[in-house]
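Morning F.,

Quick status update on the modeling queue. The single chain you submitted on Monday has been processed. Sequence for confirmation:
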Amino acid sequence: MGVLNATPDSFSDGGKFNRIDAALQRIEEMIQQGATIIDIGGESTRPYAPVVEESEETNRVIPILESAVSRFSDQVLFSIDTTKYGVAERALNAGALIVNDVSGLQKSPAMAGLVASFNAAYILVHAQGSPQDMQNNPSYMHTVTDIVNFLAQRSLLLQREGVEHIIVDPGIGFGKTLNHNLQIIAGLDKVVEIGFPVLLGASRKSMFDQLLDGREVEGRLAGTLAAHYHGLMQGVRILRVHDVQEASDSVQVFKALQVAKQTE
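Structure tokens below.
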């Protein structure tokens, strides 16, 4: 899953792709590099990011999505990264097939019925709090168990609402300390056991800044790839990434090694 931020303030690439021409060029590049899903977002979910009004978020993402769907829908699936019902509805009408909701239905519970009505897929993300307060001393009794229980319970709610296509994401960096994030990545096999495809979104996250002595965003690729590889070993199915070519290469090597292991 390649990330396309139509925002001025996202931590990794804010301001680069909020024009339609630049966004389409980047989408085409990511497809060529191996992306099979493009996740388009119009509101930064980095810690302490300001809230964006629904009208502004809609204006940022819908023109890009409409143009992208008309050009690339036969090559890639489109996902809308939003917590807002109205933005999700506009995006689904424009051709998005996936809703990536980092609030895990906590902001817009009616999102479940909306997704079901379009027979779309829903990415259920675990987050403790909102981007505005999620890093204010997050705590868990048992990190992985608490997150698995949340995802399992919300998945049942989604199914009761008629959502048939569910992807779960433990939410690296969304209300977690460095130690929480490490525990989650180390315990991804427990998330896989829930029974739905698991998405790992660790790309360029601040945990690598903490682990690697103040590493800036552009220097976090190696750490990201290490986390991705560990996730793949435990059964993760989708990687949400900024560096599509490098992620595609690592997945290709991983698959080749798995085949070699089975045929030795």
